[in-house]
Amino acid sequence: MARVNLAHLWREHWGRILAVAVGLAVLGALPLVPDAQGEKTVHTFTALVPPVVAIVLALATRRLLPSLGTAVVVGAFLHHGIADAVPLGLRDYAWKNATSAWHLYIIGFTAALLGMVQVIARSGGTHGIVDSVKGWISSGRSSRIGTAVMGLFVFFDDYANCMLVGPTMRPLTDKFRVSREKLAYLVDSTAAPVAGLVLLSTWVGHEVGVLDEQAVKLGLDERGYALLFQALPFRFYCVFSLAFVFLTSALGRDFGPMLRAERRAAIEGKLVADGARPLSGGDDEHAAPPEGAPRRAWNAAAPILLVVLVALGGFVYDGGGWAKLSTNPALVASFTFWRETLGASENNVLVLFVAAGAGAVLALTLPLVQGILSVGQAFSAFFSGIRTSAYAIGVLLLAWALATVCTDLGTGPVVVGLLGGWVSPAIIPVATFLVAAVVAFATGTSWGTMSILLPAAVPLAHATGSPEVLVLTMASVLDGAIFGDHCSPISDTTLMSSIASGSDHLDHVRTQFPYALTAMLVALFGGYLLVALGAPLVVSYVGGLGALVGVLFLIGRKPMALQS
Known about the structure:
Layout: H1 6-29, H2 42-61, H3 64-99, H4 101-122, H5 125-133, H6 140-153, H7 158-175, H8 180-197, H9 202-218, H10 224-231, H11 236-251, H12 256-268, H13 284-287, H14 298-318, H15 321-327, H16 335-344, H17 348-369, H18 375-387, H19 390-409, H20 411-420, H21 428-443, H22 446-462, H23 467-487, H24 492-501, H25 505-532, H26 537-554
Helix pairs in contact: 1-2, 2-3, 2-19, 2-20, 3-19, 4-7, 4-17, 4-18, 5-14, 6-7, 6-8, 6-11, 7-8, 7-24, 8-11, 8-23, 8-24, 8-25, 9-10, 9-16, 9-22, 10-23, 11-25, 11-26, 12-25, 14-16, 14-17, 17-18, 19-24, 20-21, 21-22, 21-23, 22-23, 23-25, 25-26
């Protein structure tokens, strides 16, 4: 009988083993968890079972669709009972999610952009961009840094960030053997942190709305946007997450599963692991331009630029900004104007869908007018790109269905109730960060987590009478939600990062988790805890950045000696 090498087994499958162990422990302990009155309650168990099932099965089996589907089915039986689980489950979790206008716009936005990207590649536009920037992107390091820098520029929406940066930079990172997992990390870890930090993004409206409601209820002097602005210097996780992206990119040092992925790509030339199932990646048959076709960067830059301009213009229109501009065009240079109009946009996914459609039309038109592609070739490439989104759309639909299940069962409030009993005033910012992380991880939504926790956490922090604790707590909820979202395999933005980067989704989650956890620990102890104890803000930032650099030099390694 062959001996089992336990060390090798743990090294290769630690994520699955840990997921199963934690999942079994949680499921075994849940029925014994007391409610607020100290009595056993079945509601705690039912609320947490579906997300635990989804996460454990996904990490253990590496089969995402069956894992999500099983969790949704389990949730349907728990919420509706055996008799009504099938008809009501199909109605609430399948039909309503598949026909939701919000979801359809996101699906349309994703499909249109993937189709557009494929046409751009087929017309030689992507090759033109590669040719135009290869003078300064000439190594793995510069391609990684370039990806991160591009992520900073697409700041106005995290969805747009993922879907524009990933496909645009993928040919360059592929050329220099940067793994798809690393590309997905670069995309994912710039999208939400950037959108969360800037005050001119689609996130502003949601965050300001929730904070403003609490400001009115508590009788605060400041309103929603002012509170958000005050919390900005204390967004430690977002700042350290972005800093870690640039540090790993510039130093070329990695650790854990990401180091193995980078070594595989650098040494073996395998951008994805053997047996991986990328959520998209393009159809090579339709990606290469016709022989002898010109490689014009403008054929790629123009559609992408149009998407950005239409999106920004749409946000302004939806936020009521055109009326102000018609009377005073100089407002276009006003920070206040952009903050108010972008924050007031309520139909951002519709705007993104229209922007992606406009970009797709232009991407199809340019090669036809120039005679680079025939009508058949152009549309064949476009629908090839859409076909690559089929699996990803299925995953998104099931992730949304699971989010609905969590809402119906009260997963978020249950987590808050379970973890809120041990919160003391001295550690409110740290505790609320951890609670937000757990809720976002379990539900896969950062916005939903903010909506759940801010109404509970802000009054709690306000009751301490400390303005510093209040601001720190608001920042910790917002950042904790983003961290949990980064680590969750059922998060839509994490899924879209995998789609945009052509990465196996579970490989992306597995490789990103240690990096997100590193930034989180530095933010938690070097940021929220230190400042809550009275340390100056500069000490937190200088010490935190030093800790990140120290981690990379202590446990980080370069994938190969010649890797730049």
